[in-house]
Design goal:
Elements (H helix, E strand, L loop, with lengths): L10 H9 L7 H22 L1 E6 L25 E3 L1 E4 L9 H10 L2 E2 L5 E3 L4 E8 L4 E6 L1 H6 L6 E12 L6 E2 L4 E5 L10 E9 H4 L5 H6 L4 E3 L10 E3 L9
The structure holds zinc ion.
The site of zinc ion has 4 residues, from loops.
Length: 246
């Protein structure tokens, strides 16, 4: 399995502070989600050959500005997290290895590349594939996870993988770790990246023609911070590199 470099980050304290703001119905998620998201993070890191992902302020849940260009105001607070940059794993063959290689991995940051495979977070079924401003968003519903997370009448927990090329179709059953999609090239000023959202979505909304406009305007939709409570060595927060990537 992929080696994981042990680095010291400040992100955990940020998350603990944010955890205090969670609403009551989200407490059940605390029991269920962190290990799931962490396992998914490890799988996605292996796919990208990342030692750890690097998040700047604009990439995080609830961000009010973009992280590319001049950092424009977002129309609505960020509904998930953006995986756009990472510190690459250093190959084990040659290169000197040892502590020098660890330092190199800790300082180099590169952009997530189009084509990078994205694994499924949790067993479920593909609800739909919708358009987004870069390419496609693949929506996966997780009825069993919804039950484990406490359940909410008329709602289902979903994972949404945005700015991707979907490789699975509506109605397909999917299992945790299976390849779902790949990061899409970006025809816009935003660099290619994976956006991950977790959300409680009303069944009634899923039965309609789902759009991102509906997702961000329907008051019943409840987005959850994917990184909340995830005590991981696989990500860090950095203010460096804002606006890069073009
Ligand atoms: Zn995003």
């Amino acid at each position: 399995m992929a080696a994981v470099l042990v680095l010291v980050f400040g992100g955990v304290n940020v998350l603990r502070a944010r955890a205090a703001t969670l609403q009551c119905h989200q407490y059940a998620l605390v029991q269920t989600m962190p290990s799931l998201v962490e396992l998914w993070l490890r799988r996605f890191a292996a796919s990208a050959r990342a030692a750890h992902f690097v998040f700047s302020a604009g990439t995080l849940f609830g961000a009010t500005t973009t992280w590319w260009g001049a950092g424009k105001a977002r129309r609505t607070p960020h509904e998930g997290v953006d995986f756009g940059r990472y510190a690459p794993l250093i190959g084990s063959a040659g290169g000197g290895g040892g502590a020098g290689a660890l330092r190199a991995a800790a300082t180099a940051v590169v952009a997530v590349q189009p084509g990078c495979a994205v694994p499924c977070l949790c067993d479920g079924a593909v609800t739909c594939v919708i358009r987004d401003f870069i390419c496609e968003t693949l929506v996966v519903e997780h009825p069993q996870l919804s039950s484990r997370a406490g359940g909410r009448a008329g709602m289902v927990l979903c994972s949404l993988f945005a700015h991707v090329r979907a490789e699975r179709r509506q109605g397909e059953r999917v299992r945790a770790g299976e390849r779902l999609c790949s990061v899409a090239p970006s025809p816009t000023s935003a660099p290619a990246h994976l956006h991950l959202s977790l959300a409680w979505l009303p069944h009634a909304l899923l039965s309609e023609q789902l759009t991102w406009k509906a997702l961000v305007t329907d008051a019943r939709v409840d987005f959850v911070d994917p990184l909340a409570h995830v005590d991981s060595r696989l990500w860090t927060i950095s203010d460096e590199g804002e606006g890069e990537g073009g």
